[in-house]
Amino acid sequence: MNRREKQLHIGRRNALKMMGIGSAAMLSAGFSDILAAEPAELKAVAKPFAEAGKSPVAFTAGTDRMQMLFEVIKPFEAEIKAGLKKKQLVIKPNMVVTNKELCATHKDALRALLEYVKSFYRGQIVIAESSAVFNSSEGFNNYGYADLAKDFNIKFIDLNTQKTGKPFYIIDKNLHLEQIEIFDMLTNPDNYIISLSRLKTHNSVVMTGGIKNIAMAAPLNAPAAIDGGQPKGHKWKMHSGGPRWLHYNLFLMAQRVRPDFTIIDGVEGMEGDGPINGTPVDHRIALAGFDAVAVDSMCARLMGITLENVGYLNYCASAGMGNLDRNKIEIIGGKDPDKSVIAYKLSSNISSQLEWKEPLILPGQSTGGK
């Protein structure tokens, strides 16, 4: 076994170990094919890394949202330009519901990104979202996104109006394979996906950043009126097994759908009972990068969250999908992230969110003794 094969073997073994179950129980459902795939096969578009295997993450701190986002995008401009050649730019903001401004990407963050890319991207820009409450168009209006059409060549797409998607498999609460459908727009290799979201705690998987913004947007979420009276709420099937399996389903989804570039607006974050009902945090930071695992891991550190508690990030890193190790993350910019750490208050149900770390007790198994 060469060094590369050994690293992959260790990564897969650690992923199964962290799940708290034996490999036989998991792989019997066909996951051996998933875990056997080379990381390059898990996402068709490879992301550039810094020398010596490091992942560059741009970081800054301040109060001017537009200037801060310019600062964290600028170091990657050449690679973004190259990635956008002959591709459709799709910006995915974060909008869980349509009437709580703190839960959504700030309109000025969206404006900053649009302003930056207009100098080198001449085509129409798609802003796409699939809110949990079906009608994303209400959010486009309520959060001020629609007003941006006055200044930029943009098209808004409510993904929840899409009737069909591509088949994908996740697991249900019984660890059975469950087929869902995922949006074509987020799987099309001719689209260049930028995730733009804010720092938030979460009531199922501890925290949410760039990966979850894309992974949870992918499942088809068409309301009943669109599908002849039968809703296709595949988004909620991701949650069917509770937090333990949502962590794992996010990992499965991220192998097929994750952003080409990730931007986090942390000027104002959300703590407590996120991703909807939390309270604001005056954090005044921003960060960005191609390696979404590295970016999200820095988000967790900046929020004072123990990184080992975020299951889906650990799974992704163990499968070779990005860097979690701080020593392998190169911070770009003149500001020190360690000086901007704020310990966010976590969700009131945080203990149940960490069950993924514990051994899975199956029916008939003893919890102790012989």
Structure, briefly:
The chain is an alpha/beta fold and 370 residues long. It has helices at residues 3-19, 23-36, 39-42, 65-73, 77-84, 107-117, 136-142, 210-215, 234-237, 242-256, 292-302, 311-318, 350-353, and strands at 55-61, 88-92, 125-129, 154-158, 166-171, 177-182, 191-202, 206-208, 221-222, 232-233, 261-271, 279-289, 329-332.
Account of the protein in words:
By secondary structure, the chain is of the alpha/beta class. The protein has one domain: Rossmann fold (3-Layer(aba) Sandwich), CATH 3.40.50. Helices cover 32% and strands 21% of the residues. The chain contains 13 helices and 13 strands. Strands 1, 2, 3, 4, 7, 8, 11, 12 and 13 form a 9-stranded mixed β-sheet that branches. It has a two-stranded antiparallel sheet with strand order 5-6. A two-stranded antiparallel ribbon has the order 9-10. β7 and β8 form a beta hairpin. α1 runs antiparallel to α12, α4 packs across α6 and α10 crosses α12. The longest helix is centred in the first third of the chain and has 17 residues.
